[in-house]
Amino acid sequence: MMLQPVRRPLGPLKSLLRRNRQAQQFMARTMATETTPTASEMAASSSIPPPPISTLAAKKPSKFHVIPSKTPGKPIRTAFAVYAPPPSARAAHPDALISYHAQQIRRLDRTGTRTALFSKKNPDAAKPGDVLQVTTNRGEPFAGVCLSIKRAGVDTAILLRNHLTKVGVEMWYKIYSPNVLGIEIIWRRPKRARRARLYFMRKPRHDMGNVEHLVAAWRRSRNVFSSNKGRGTQGKGGKGSKGSK
Amino acid sequence: MAPRLPAGWAASLSLSPSTVLTTRILLIERHALLPRTAKRGVKYGWSTLPSRSRPARFNQVSSGLPVPTAGPAAALKRKEATTPLRTGVLAVKKGVSAMFVGGLRMPCTILQMEQVEVVAAKTREKNGYWAVQLGLGHKTAGNVTAPLLGYYEAKGVAPKRHLAEFKVRTEEGLLPVGVQLQPDWFKLGQFVDARSKSRGMGFAGGMKRHGFAGQGASHGNSKNHRTIGTTGPSQGGGSRVHPGKKMPGRMGNERVTVQNLRVLKFDNEMGIVVVSGHVAGPKGCVVKISDAIKKDPPAQTFIDKARRILLERNPEAEAKLEQARLRHLELKEARKEGRIGEAMAATTAATITATATESATA
């Protein structure tokens, strides 16, 4: 611990810069995301068939496959006409699963904010250890510390942990689900977690406990910037997040 | 009646040992000189009598006997209700994901149809059943054996990576050879069955393979915690292991059918069919998708429409097949006569001339 500043003299500067950047972003409140459930998938993809692929050219016997002979004077043992194969869907889309994910994410996250919120390329993305609040189309918004992010394309999910009535509660949320109206960063972990899965936070020694005080602080900070401050109902997570975007 | 034996069959038995030895030597010498042909034929004891099992005058169907409940015709009749009206398709499993359909998350499997073509039609007259043979993928000609190269040559189809048959109920379910099937062969929301080979688990014990309970950790148990226990009753019960007894052995790598999966999505451009739920086997395994046998097939109007679209996309399939067949016969003759080199040269020259003519006209 003592040697660390010697080895990385500019180490603290990085975290300071990051915090500064995030504080500025926090004022702009751009992290609230919203997706509108689009028309049903049934209607979306029933507009196929595409134009027919012409197979007339493909059916021409293009070449011969020659099986050589070992006899010196006779080079060809036999030969067969080989017809050209039809166009390959696999060559055009070598990784169909990735294409599928991209297509579905385009459909469910039109603006791309949800993807950016959890993108590895985004330095200000939500990370394990941050406290997030998820607003769904039913019930109260759920806030909790993010223990892990399961990245699986359109099936990407986050695991939030909180304490409700002194009982530990964990909830998985699919970030692209149409039922999830908004995801917000309530509190950032001051120092980046050095693990991707913070399951050790389930142990009493590391447990964050209830995050209600962080949510309350976040609400207060939002009320400062809103036009009609002083009204207690304004800070209600989901509505505020929807209005901000 | 036992087959007749040749008249002098017992003569060799009565010979003296020395004579037998000379006979053997003589025989070997004769065999060494003459071509090796087996001693077979009528004069060596084969019967030429007609088969006794043929239906004679009194056991004809028309003589008031019941229709046989066994045999090919009866089997086809019995399986008619569960045989799909039309062919299924072959696809490759690409992976598993989820789809949100109206707020509901549905786990799904992504299957890709790669160059799925009809290679042959199996008919009642020739093969005893109606079926469509499909091919998937592409194989380099150098990796295909000569007999199969001839097969594909006669069909006018490029060599396929996998071949599979799909039985259909009647002749109406057959498709012309050479047509390419696309994912829109299926109707959105229809039910399908997916057949594939499950992941091989290797040699597995009874607990893993059949879900046996295993045995206690203590109470005097000695080195038998995961063993299967008894395999059957003792004396009085037969003192034997009954056939089909579940035991340790190779697990997985067997064909698994998952029934009644919904088609959630298809995309002709990507060549994918997305079905709900999971399909057995690892990524990259070949999956046979066909209309579910325990659900109603898609509406007849849809079946007709899909067929019409298919035939429009692949015009003149029959003519092309006939052309390929005739060409195959020519080439086959050339191969037999050892002048395949000239046939190849002639074809190449003709192609070059045709191309030159085309370019000249253009």
Structural features, described:
Chain A is built from eight helices and seven strands; from the N terminus they run αααββαααβββββαα. Chain A has 245 residues and is of the alpha+beta class. In chain A, the strands form two sheets. Chain A has a five-stranded antiparallel beta sheet with strand order 6-5-4-3-7. The longest helix of chain A has 18 residues, at 11-28. Among the domains of chain B are: 89-200 and 252-315, Beta Barrel (Elongation Factor Tu (Ef-tu), domain 3); 319-357. Chain B is built from eight helices and eleven strands. Chain B has helices spanning 17-33, 72-78, 124-127, 146-155, 206-210, 300-313, 317-337, 340-361, and strands at residues 89-101, 104-112, 117-122, 131-136, 162-167, 191-197, 202-204, 249-251, 255-267, 272-276, 286-291. Chains A and B meet through strand 1, strand 2, helix 4 and helix 5 of A and strand 1, strand 2, helix 4, strand 9 and helix 6 of B.
